[in-house]
């Protein structure tokens, strides 16, 4: 099948071309993001492949549909950037890659914790400047500290195992608590309020939905333990960045590791060195010595890329052959979410 791959970087090409040896699709790679402005590049392609910072709003989807596109194959787990109701109205099928490597993301969240705690980013810069002083680099033992995991799906569960391995006490919050995880690892499900109050480190692993948008706002931050380390490898808009800046300034938040940022679209995945950064909130975040920002790279391992490519091309194959789509995303799946702010158990909204 002819597949137009948008927002394609060299690592995407390498992985997709390697996996395609088994499928024989005709792949065409486009560097631009897929938005209403670039949708016409998909003319004569029945299928497009899109990544997290593309913008598949109603306008873009209508243009794609007008060009003859019938399948949107997301090479991501998250689908918050797609107007699924518009896709359904147009009869466009949307697939995703629900699971590729939870370990990639969980390990990355832990890497942010370790780097921030032991100030490896600062030590690296110092030593390169021949400054071998240890002043200001004091960290803490992870052993015995309390880690709060918000979201214990695939990634949160992998994170729970790792943190238990460090000897941490792990508190969890999820709309659908996993009793097996409690039995297997000794983590404890608690209310969001208790998790906020007791966690020395707090890591976010819920999807972005209307209910989790700005889950971590000024009020939530105020309820957290003073000096908390906040890690976000989920989606940028889980955190109100302005409220986070205030909490960092007042030193209520002790450190933040952010692999995602609510306004990352158009910034992350691009080389903007030599340009003037126009986003004042991101610019302010980058001034804090206790904040580590990375460019949505938690997924970026060889294993994850291979799995993403394989699952995406398999969805394209199934679509071409008129088979049921195992990883189809439909509007109704997202429209019955549970509020994290309810703090109670509910139904799973992110299958
Ligand atoms: P998953 O679907 O396995 O787990 C999500 C968990 O969140 C589920 O247990 C669900 O019950 C819970 N949840 C959903 N809405 C909730 C709510 N309102 N309140 C409480 N709990 C709620 O997803 P997975 O694979 O663990 O991924 C989590 C998120 O991580 C993805 O949605 C995506 O946004 C992000 N992600 C980030 C990557 C990166 O490179 N930085 C890569 C892959 C995923």
Structural class: alpha/beta
Instruction: Indicate the CATH architecture of the largest domain.
Output: 3-Layer(aba) Sandwich
Bound molecules: 1,4-dihydronicotinamide adenine dinucleotide
Q: What fraction strand?
A: 5-15%
CATH level-4 homologous superfamily of the largest domain? NAD(P)-binding Rossmann-like Domain
How far the N terminus sits from the C terminus, by CA atoms, comes to 27 Å
Residue share in helix: 25-40%
Number of domains: 2
CATH class of the largest domain: Alpha Beta
Query: Which regions are unreliable across 5 or more consecutive residues at pLDDT < 50?
Result: 335-351
Mean pLDDT, to the nearest integer, reads 94
N-to-C SSE string, H for helix and E for strand: EHEEHEHEHHEHEHEHEHEHEHEHH
Q: Which term fits the overall shape?
A: globular
Tally of DSSP β-strands: 12
For the CA atoms, what is the radius of gyration?
21 Å
Number of helical segments with 4 or more residues = 13
- Stated plainly, the CATH topology of the largest domain is called Rossmann fold
Largest sheet: 7 strands, parallel
Q: In which order are the strands of the major sheet placed? A: 8-7-6-9-10-11-12
Question: Could you describe the 3D structure shown?
Answer:
The protein is α/β, with parallel strands linked by helices and 351 residues long. It folds into two domains: 2-100 and 302-336, NAD(P)-binding Rossmann-like Domain (Rossmann fold, 3-Layer(aba) Sandwich); 102-293, NAD(P)-binding Rossmann-like Domain (Rossmann fold, 3-Layer(aba) Sandwich). Helices cover 35% and strands 14% of the residues. The chain contains 13 helices and twelve strands. The protein has a seven-stranded parallel β-sheet with strand order 8-7-6-9-10-11-12, with helices on both faces. A five-stranded parallel β-sheet has the order 2-1-3-4-5, sandwiched between helices. β11 (253-258), α11 and β12 form a beta-alpha-beta unit. α1 packs across α12 and α2 (58-66) runs parallel beside α3 (84-90). The two termini are 27 Å apart. The model is unreliable at 335-351 (pLDDT under 50). 1,4-dihydronicotinamide adenine dinucleotide binds at residues 77-78, 102, 105, 151-156, 174-176, 205-209, 211-212, 233-235, 259-260, 296, 298-299, 337-340, 348-350.
């Amino acid at each position: 099948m002819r597949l137009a791959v948008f927002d394609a970087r060299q690592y995407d090409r390498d992985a997709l071309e390697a996996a395609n040896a088994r499928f024989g699709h005709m792949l065409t790679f486009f560097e631009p993001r897929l938005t209403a402005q670039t949708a016409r590049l998909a003319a004569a392609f029945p299928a497009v492949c899109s990544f997290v910072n593309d913008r598949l709003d109603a306008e873009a989807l209508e243009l794609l549909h007008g060009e003859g596109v019938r399948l949107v194959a997301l090479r991501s787990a998250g689908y918050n950037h797609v107007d699924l109701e518009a896709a359904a109205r147009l009869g466009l099928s949307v697939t995703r890659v629900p699971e590729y490597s939870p370990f990639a993301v969980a390990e990355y969240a832990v890497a942010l914790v370790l780097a921030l705690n032991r100030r490896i980013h600062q030590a690296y810069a110092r030593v390169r400047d021949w400054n071998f002083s240890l002043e200001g680099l004091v960290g803490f033992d992870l052993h015995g500290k309390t880690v709060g995991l918000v979201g214990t799906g695939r990634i949160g569960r992998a994170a729970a195992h790792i943190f238990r391995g460090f000897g941490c006490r792990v508190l969890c919050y999820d709309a659908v608590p996993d009793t097996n995880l409690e039995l297997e690892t000794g983590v404890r499900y608690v209310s969001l309020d208790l998790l906020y109050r007791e966690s020395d480190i707090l890591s976010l692993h819920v999807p972005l939905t209307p209910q989790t948008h700005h889950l971590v706002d000024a009020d939530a931050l105020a309820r957290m333990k003073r000096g908390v380390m906040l890690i976000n490898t989920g989606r940028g808009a889980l955190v109100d960045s302005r409220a986070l800046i205030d909490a960092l300034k007042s030193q209520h938040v002790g450190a933040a590791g952010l692999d995602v940022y609510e306004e990352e679209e158009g910034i992350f995945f691009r080389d903007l060195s030599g340009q003037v950064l126009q986003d004042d909130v991101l610019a302010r975040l980058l001034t804090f010595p206790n904040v580590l920002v990375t460019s949505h790279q938690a997924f970026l391992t060889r294993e994850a890329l291979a799995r993403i490519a394989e699952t995406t091309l398999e969805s394209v194959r199934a679509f071409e052959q008129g088979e049921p789509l195992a990883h189809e995303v439909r509007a109704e799946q997202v429209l019955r979410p549970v509020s994290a702010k309810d703090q109670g158990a509910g139904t799973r909204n992110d299958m």
